[in-house]
């Protein structure tokens, strides 16, 4: 079965016709010279690179896997050459500033690139996945001395970077981190401890690896406030090797081409990044960028699964579809069977809405950075804070569960390696866990962001969306009604939480799903407003997923709000 | 992490306290001598065998896998010894008749045995999984000559059996089977063709393997009515080898310890089983038994996943649970966090309800066979016809999706092999596909069984359930209301289907889920009626899952019926 191929026309449709992104970006002084033609050209080239260089390595990466021996990790065949070609072509530096060696292009282009890379080869994409976050972290928090050695190498991707947070006893709960940092007389530090689940902690893709490590200074207070951030390179600027060791890599359900390393820091000499005790703040820069990337992984993987299932459904014949006559021995394409059609159209509805939400979020990130208008910035901040955890959760959920639905389209063949669909399901599963489990995203949304200000930010976000619903569309009425329900339900949670501190934690998942469905609804109304013709092609491409959304996806909204209201009533 | 351990006390509770099975069975002449004490003794011994012999082989089976070389298949270490001990102890013959070498015990005991076996080691259990069906098929359809050679060997499990249906182009659509059977002058046949996805088509567990093969006689009509069934042994009674070859085994997502074989029949000499052209009828005996087994696999695998997640949630501490204070550096068990509690209690609600439904179905199978009362038999037939596809679909779905939720309880560790939970998810996935995909189960339920008689059987089943709801229970009112809704929705589909032949195919999945939720609801009301004390233990064991069912599971009913009604309205 053929590899994933980027369909840049669909992506471009969302970028230009749905979000009007090129015009919005060009209005910002930072991107005055980035016009629509340039953006589309970059997108096409990215698609070509991903399809030709990265996608063909996916299957082999799963079969061979990353190999550990004596502390060194060998990446699967072809991964290194592809990475060298990737950074030398400037792809990692797409959205880095020109003064740091980057190309200064908008974040949305980087987002589209990562969607395609993840769809093509999730394992390979793990390697550069944290680069941009590490770049931002070093740029904004490291000393000039550190920057002089590391900023450009990380900005361009000549060196790769890791985020060393998790320890065996400290996963979601970073407050329990025990890795120690001891100040040395020369102003440097020595870091000791063991970090686990370090993606790309060791590999042969680049000459050097830059580790950003959370550790605790002597006499630091317990909990998250006692954490500081340190930069430990594999090789120091003088060429000597640091005392960082990869003790083993994990055997995993999937993602075999990405080494998940146990890293041991053995009095590794290093410098601090930012202020003592502010390690988490510096790290959160990386984590927020990472969450958007993980949402894009979900969207990309679901698209890849959909592509495979769609192709199979147009080749394979089994039984007569209803209404197609009953002549024995004849059969119809499985894509004509309603149960299969439903799966295919539903996944497509998720992918398209995912793009609208993720690209819009990337746009908002650029507005935060580059808009001269304080109101625009505030509104962009709000969008990113509220929408990022929703996207991370629902699109990684959908990549696994909807990917499994796509596997189902293959029948027994779906369970067999050679069709490649089961790899997508295995690979996708991890995205529901890392960068904050989906349950933690839900608590982040409801407890930390919505309830923290009594629902004000959420209401402001809903105002934005409500105003943006196309007035002419019939379905906008139902969308408005759902928005009103969501506002009311939010206030019920605010009130009932006074009596019951655990309530919000019990219903956080339902609440996140309800918000997601309102966002999906908006996204699809915007998509339909962007479709300008009623040709047969447009019907098949856009109308069927829109119908699937309303038939099979949006009814979940009522169930979620019912569950929440029931819990609020019990709490009262 | 420790292996699955059967918890026979929970199973016994459902058998005796919820279903009153021993008394019901003893009332049948066939089981007059099977008292409660005997049944419980068999259950305890089965549990011991499964826990001590079968469960410890599960991890190795996944890691080593079945190995193919030169047409022979070597099973993972320990599988053969375990199988020899299994059949020599009489376990495969539990429910076979005494006259065939069996023990003549009730089907429900066999069901409980297979639940435990599947939970302990899904791959290993694939080997004897089709035995009982093959036994029934040979017993009821084969000639006396064939029976004299094969019936007792298959009844006792000394020889294993396969079901050879699928071909590369004929999966769900058996009408497309092309394997040919040519009559020979001596009254035998020669079968030629290639069958795929044959579980246990070749292995080293037993001295002989008995293949039941669907093939087409010359001049047979096209489609399913042209199919006949043949018995092709690996070795003939005279010891010579048949022309059946295992050409390769598949690389799969999971179930690595079960060889999924490509079997080539090269003019293999064999005998017919039953009448020419009645092959599917004979095969359906096997397939119905197999569907109950697959439902039990789902229940068992979900229980195994729950056990692992439950144990982990009682060891691992991360962050403070809500309402538990905020002292930095301290943390609570993850089982105390509401999002994790919700996952654990919900899966337990599914497992317990699954047992009630599956054991009840096994009881009904015995009533079909052994009840002297025609009304009882008819009602039992109805129960099995309607409830079997529902169970097959929802419990295999839940084993994968709920198993994935259990994986989530482990955070990043869930994605790593060593905890064993990811294996359960990978293994479970196939059960949504084989023995009729879950989509086909839904169409079987709605199109072939409910709509075929205008909803009469379904209404009769609902009458049985409605009468059986405990009158004293407050929640029975809601259950009665859901039953009424289901009746009304069924009639809406009946009416709207007149206009739209595809409607039932579009909503079949929703309909099956709605029926499942009504059955779950009934099952839990019966469970609660069986809990006779209000001790703290009973609270934790039964009350929390019951609460989870009503909080998180049953609200789906409204969503499903809403979706169906919306589609009916569109069709009208």
Radius of gyration of chain A: 24 Å
**Strand portion of chain A:** 5-15%
Query: Which percent range fits the helix content of chain A?
Result: 55-70%
DSSP helical segment count of chain A: 19
Biggest interface in this structure?
A: A-B, 78 and 78 residues
Shape of chain A: globular
Overall mean pLDDT of chain A stands at 95
Tell me the distance between the termini of chain A. Answer: 56 Å
> What is the succession of H and E elements of chain A?
HHHHEEHHHHHEEEEEEEHHHHHHHHHH
The main β sheet of chain A shows up as:
7 strands, mixed
Runs of chain A in which pLDDT lies below 50 for 5 or more consecutive residues are none
- Oligomer classification: homodimer
Number of distinct beta strands of chain A: 9
What does this structure look like?
Two copies of one chain form a homodimer. By secondary structure, chain A is α+β, with helices and mostly antiparallel strands. Helices cover 56% and strands 11% of the residues of chain A. In chain A, strands 3, 4, 5, 6, 7, 8 and 9 form a seven-stranded mixed beta sheet that branches. The mean pLDDT of chain A is 95. In chain A, a hairpin with a 2-residue loop joins strand 1 and strand 2. Chain A is globular and about 80 Å long. Among the domains of chain A are: 8-141, Acyl-CoA dehydrogenase/oxidase, N-terminal domain (Butyryl-Coa Dehydrogenase, subunit A, domain 1, Orthogonal Bundle); 160-277, Butyryl-CoA Dehydrogenase, subunit A, domain 2 (Beta Barrel), CATH 2.40.110; 437-572, no CATH class. Chain A has helices at 8-18, 21-26, 36-54, 58-64, 79-88, 107-120, 122-129, 131-141, 144-156, 279-313, 338-370, 374-409, 421-429, 438-450, 456-467, 476-496, 503-530, 536-553, 556-571, and strands at 67-69, 72-74, 160-164, 180-183, 189-199, 209-216, 227-233, 244-249, 260-273.
